[in-house]
Each structure stands twice: as structure tokens, then as C-alpha cells.
């Protein structure tokens, strides 16, 4: 069972819903049940429509990302909101600004479309509660208020909200990306501290959780920015595995199992002469053994449609390329010559070493 099944596909983007979203539907049905079946239907319907607005918000990010050459393959719906997974980070502050602004703009358009159908006194504080009788007017007012709240909340200058990314993009037009991220992180954690203080003083648990989420997400964003900077400084040609064991098409899965157990090597190039035919991963072997106990030739289970990267690409570019292909490993080439394999695990291990060296270099006293 998957915890986030795909419920919809739009323009090759999978919309996935985490199963915990059903708990939110059940909760909304329960709090509106004081109005009977009509109330239950209202609570569930309002929640579904609200998350439809969230999906549109995330699609705004996704389609904006595609216009600057960044594929988005998945949007995940959680009880706290949605996440559009970009396959790589934007290459320029302008790209990040455009992608970040696109989501809230969608909610602005929705709110403007709903405005003629709600009362003139409707504001973002008019979100309906179960003390009100369900009605179409109340539903429209709730949707209007929610979209206004989404815009205002998302524009807070704090990671991982859109406002935090807009802030960094603006700073990065004047400073380096890494410095801009550092400043944006400090501001984000300051915003989190203010929200946390308000939460403690007012006794609002959900607000306190939101503050913690913003605080730690900002720290993660700073770490990811550092990782990108360090990985950009190294070429994949300096980091691929030169000592890896290779396979021939005539090898069988039993040999791969022995190699996995004795070498701890998870990925194997299948070569014939100097030509790379395919890649066999530990996952391929496990799936083959589960489906067919027979000792198959590796040629029958290898992946022929593998990711190719040039040895002159940076580790960060390779990481993005592998991620965009929804894969775990890539073949490194110098022209037409196959050099070796590099995986996301290899890149993570390289990052750990590069980070350690960089930190110790910065701590070393000047001679």
C-alpha cells in the first residue's frame, strides 16, 4: 500500500493525496455533523473545494517552472497543504521569483472571481464555522476567505513559504545565492520566532506547530543551498566510481547477488567490450527474484534506458539530471567512451567529504 496514491494526472503531473488527508475530511464531516447530513456534505465539500484551490496554487508553481525549463512530475497533497516537487532548483533569481509568485497569483485570480458572489463585508476572517447554517452563500464566502488567507500567509517572508523564496530571489539579485539564502534564513527564523511567541501567548497549538515547521524548514533550506554550492564546485568526472565491478550480458542474477553481498556495490554496469549495454541495480535484482525465482541472465533485467551524463558536468547538475529522470544512478561518459557509474548515494557521500574538507579549511588558522 502506498501512503500517497495518485488521484489525478494533469499534463504529465501526478497529483498525489496522502492518506492522512482522509482524516481531515472525517474531522470536517464530524464538526459539521450538528447540521445533519446537509452539514456533513457541506463540511466535506468545502474541504475538497479548498484543496482544489491548493492544487491550482501548486499547478501555478508547476507550470511557471516548466516555462523556465524545470520539469515538475508530482504534486503531493497533505492535510497542511500542497507541495510541488521541482526536479531541480531554479538557475537564476528571476526564475525563482517567477515560480514563487505564480502560486499566490492563482489564488488572487480565484478570489477576484469569487468576489462578486460574496457579501461586501466579506474578508479573510469570514471563514465559516459550524455555528453557521450551511448554504451556497456560506460556501462561496468560505472559498473567498480561504484564497485571501492563502495569499497573505504564503507571502510571509519565511521559508518554505512563497514569500521566503520571493525574499531570497530579491536578495540574490544583489548578493550571491548563498549569502541571500543566509539572510533569508535568518529573517525566516525570526518570523517563526514571532509566530511561536504569539502561539504561546494565545495558546494556539496549530500556530505553534506552524512556527516550528517554518523554523526547521528555513534551516533545511540553508543546508540545501550550501549543498548546491559545494556540489557545483566539483565535476562528476572527479567523483564517479573507478573501482566498480562490471557485468557481462551472460552473467546471471546469482552472481549479482554474490557481488552485492561481498562488495556492497548496489549498481552494476553491463558491458560488452567497451560498450555499455545497460545498468542493473540492487532493486532490479530483488524485483526479478520476487517475480521469477529462476536464475535469469542480467541482460533480461537490466535497464537499457539509462541516464547519460558528461564527465564535465558538476555534481549538482548530475544530481538534478538524475532527479529529473526519477532515477537513482547515471552513466558517466567522455564523448562516446563510458567511464563509470555515479548514483545519488555516491553524490551524497561525496558531499559529506567535500563539506567536511570545506568546514575544516575555513576553521584552519591562517599560516
Note down, in words, how this protein is organized.
This protein is of the alpha/beta class. Helices cover 54% and strands 14% of the residues. It has eleven helices and nine strands. Strand 5 and strand 6 (275-281) form a beta hairpin. The mean pLDDT is 85.
Describe the largest sheet. Answer: 4 strands, mixed
The radius of gyration computed from the alpha-carbon positions, rounded to a whole number of angstroms, is 25 Å
Structural class by helix and strand composition? alpha/beta
Average the pLDDT over all residues and give the rounded result. 85
Number of strands: 9
Poorly predicted ranges: none
Helix content: 40-55%
Terminal-residue CA separation: 59 Å
Percent range for β-strand residues = 5-15%
Spatial shape: globular
Strand order of the largest sheet: 1-2-3-4
Indicate how many domains the architecture comprises: 3
* Helix/strand order: EEHHEEHHHHHHEEHEHEEH
Number of helices: 11
Supply database-style keywords.
367 residues, alpha/beta, CBS-domain, 3 domains, four-stranded mixed beta sheet, three-stranded mixed beta sheet, 11 helices, 54% helix, globular
In brief, what are we looking at here?
With 367 residues, the protein is of the alpha/beta class. The protein has helices at residues 21-31, 36-67, 93-114, 136-154, 162-172, 177-202, 205-232, 253-263, 282-291, 315-324, 344-363, and strands at 6-10, 13-17, 72-78, 81-86, 267-272, 275-281, 307-310, 329-334, 337-343.
Amino acid at each position: 500500500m502506498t501512503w500517497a496514491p495518485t488521484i489525478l494526472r494533469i499534463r504529465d503531473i501526478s497529483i498525489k493525496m496522502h492518506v492522512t488527508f482522509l482524516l481531515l475530511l472525517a474531522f470536517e464531516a464530524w464538526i459539521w455533523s450538528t447540521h445533519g447530513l446537509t452539514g456533513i456534505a457541506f463540511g466535506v465539500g468545502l474541504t475538497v473545494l479548498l484543496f482544489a484551490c491548493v492544487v491550482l496554487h501548486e499547478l501555478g508553481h508547476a507550470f511557471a517552472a516548466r516555462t523556465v525549463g524545470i520539469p515538475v512530475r508530482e504534486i503531493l497533497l497533505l492535510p497542511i497543504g500542497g507541495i510541488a516537487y521541482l526536479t531541480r532548483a531554479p538557475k537564476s533569481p528571476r526564475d525563482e521569483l517567477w515560480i514563487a509568485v505564480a502560486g499566490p497569483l492563482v489564488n488572487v485570480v480565484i478570489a477576484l472571481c469569487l468576489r462578486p458572489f460574496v457579501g461586501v463585508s466579506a474578508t479573510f476572517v469570514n471563514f465559516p464555522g459550524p455555528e453557521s447554517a450551511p448554504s451556497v452563500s456560506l460556501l462561496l464566502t468560505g472559498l473567498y476567505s480561504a484564497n485571501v488567507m492563502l495569499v497573505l500567509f504564503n507571502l510571509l517572508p519565511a521559508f518554505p513559504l512563497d514569500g521566503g523564496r520571493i525574499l531570497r530571489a530579491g536578495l540574490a539579485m544583489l548578493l550571491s545565492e548563498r549569502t541571500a539564502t543566509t539572510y533569508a534564513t535568518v529573517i525566516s527564523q525570526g518570523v517563526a520566532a514571532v509566530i511561536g511567541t504569539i502561539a504561546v501567548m494565545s495558546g494556539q497549538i496549530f500556530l505553534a506547530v506552524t512556527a516550528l515547521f517554518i523554523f526547521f524548514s528555513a534551516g533545511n533550506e540553508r543546508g540545501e543551498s550550501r549543498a548546491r554550492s559545494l556540489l557545483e564546485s566539483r565535476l562528476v568526472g572527479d567523483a564517479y566510481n573507478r573501482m566498480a565491478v562490471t557485468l557481462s550480458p551472460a552473467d546471471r542474477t546469482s552472481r549479482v547477488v554474490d557481488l552485492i553481498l561481498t562488495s556492497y556495490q548496489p549498481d552494476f554496469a553491463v558491458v560488452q567490450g567497451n560498450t555499455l549495454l545497460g545498468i542493473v541495480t540492487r532493486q532490479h535484482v530483488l524485483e526479478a527474484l520476487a517475480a521469477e525465482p529462476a536464475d535469469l541472465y542480467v541482460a533480461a533485467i537490466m535497464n537499457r534506458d539509462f541516464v547519460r551524463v558528461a564527465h564535465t558536468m558538476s555534481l549538482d547538475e548530475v544530481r538534478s539530471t538524475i532527479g529529473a529522470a526519477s532515477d537513482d544512478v547515471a552513466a558517466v561518459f567522455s564523448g562516446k567512451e563510458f567511464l563509470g557509474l555515479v548514483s545519488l548515494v555516491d553524490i551524497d557521500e561525496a558531499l559529506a567529504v567535500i563539506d567536511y574538507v570545506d568546514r575544516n579549511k575555513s576553521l584552519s588558522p591562517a599560516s
